[in-house]
């Protein structure tokens, strides 16, 4: 039974399209995150939600909009996709600040 | 400006020997440091952590050392096993978020 699941696992799309990545956790955690692993392999935080409230919003283009309908879900919607958005996106959750559990990642390729 | 850096992209070690993975950081306000392990097509999984008030934490074959004056931490794996082959990420905690290095790919050869 997957603890943090994100879908889809792979996503190939054309520039200019709008796409969403979904994330769900069944761990009862109160905080969820989106991280981006760029071409240089760094894992960089994008957003963090605690009990459906946005608490961390790093310098991310406003084409990226997270949505948390409840504390078990954190979806990521991306408008007007660009080539530079190609990356692996990881969802994670935690109880408090430590003990992160990551999803298996979504590899986004923009062509 | 990367606050957490792992300067070795890869490391190859013989089975049974010691693996030493290194990590440097710039921010003295980090209060917790963690190591994560990642297999291909999977998310990172937590391995071991250390509080900034300690200089060593040990868990089985894994030991993390923290040198605050040098802003350096290292992960020692003894003895290394082929199943340890993975990418290892160093991370530092600040204000509710983890800041990751770029990872070191460890290959343990039989």
Task: Kindly state the number of beta strands of chain A.
Answer: 11
Q: Which quaternary structure do these chains form?
A: heterodimer
The rounded Rg of chain A comes to 13 Å
Report the portion of residues of chain B in β strands.
over 45%
Q: Residue ranges of chain A: pLDDT <50 for 5 or more in a row?
A: none
The helicity of chain B comes to under 10%
Mean residue pLDDT of chain A? 92
User: What is the overall shape of chain A?
Assistant: globular
Can you describe what's shown?
The complex is a heterodimer of chains A (111) and B (110). Chain A has 111 residues and is mostly beta strands. Chain A has strands spanning 4-7, 10-13, 19-25, 31-37, 43-50, 53-57, 64-70, 73-78, 87-95, 98-102, 106-110. The radius of gyration of chain A is 13 Å and the shape is globular. The N and C termini of chain A lie far apart (34 Å). The mean pLDDT of chain A is 92. Chain B has no helices and eleven strands. In chain B, strands 2, 4, 5, 9, 10 and 11 form a six-stranded mixed sheet that branches. In chain B, strand 4 and strand 5 form a beta hairpin. Chain B starts with a strand and ends with a strand.
Keywords for this structure?
heterodimer; A: 111 residues; mainly beta; seven-stranded mixed β-sheet; four-stranded antiparallel β-sheet; 0% helix; B: 110 residues; six-stranded mixed β-sheet; five-stranded antiparallel β-sheet; globular
Please write out the topology.
The complex is a heterodimer of chains A (111) and B (110).
Chain A: E1 4-7, E2 10-13, E3 19-25, E4 31-37, E5 43-50, E6 53-57, E7 64-70, E8 73-78, E9 87-95, E10 98-102, E11 106-110
Parallel strand pairs in A: 2-11
Antiparallel strand pairs in A: 1-3, 3-8, 4-5, 4-9, 5-6, 7-8, 9-10, 9-11
Chain B: E1 4-5, E2 10-14, E3 19-25, E4 32-38, E5 45-51, E6 56-59, E7 62-67, E8 72-77, E9 86-94, E10 97-100, E11 104-109
């Amino acid at each position: 039974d997957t603890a943090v699941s994100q879908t889809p696992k792979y996503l190939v799309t054309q520039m200019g399209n709008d796409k969403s990545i979904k994330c769900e956790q069944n761990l009862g955690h109160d905080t969820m995150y989106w991280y981006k692993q760029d071409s240089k392999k760094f894992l960089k935080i994008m957003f963090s939600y605690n009990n459906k409230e946005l608490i961390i919003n790093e310098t991310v283009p406003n084409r990226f909009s997270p949505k948390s309908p409840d504390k078990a879900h954190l979806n990521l919607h991306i408008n007007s996709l660009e080539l530079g958005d190609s990356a692996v996106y990881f969802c994670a959750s935690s109880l408090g600040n430590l003990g992160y559990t990551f999803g298996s990642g979504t590899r986004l390729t923009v062509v | 400006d990367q606050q957490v850096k792992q300067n070795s992209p890869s490391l190859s070690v013989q089975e049974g020997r010691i693996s030493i993975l290194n990590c440097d950081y710039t921010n003295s306000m980090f209060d917790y440091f963690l190591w994560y392990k990642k297999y291909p097509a999977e998310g990172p999984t937590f391995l071991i952590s250390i509080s900034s008030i300690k200089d060593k934490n040990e868990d089985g074959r894994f030991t993390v050392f923290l040198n605050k004056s040098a802003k350096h931490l290292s992960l020692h794996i003894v003895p290394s096993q082929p199943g340890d082959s993975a990418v290892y990420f160093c991370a530092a905690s600040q204000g509710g978020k983890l800041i990751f290095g770029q990872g070191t790919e460890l290959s343990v050869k039989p």
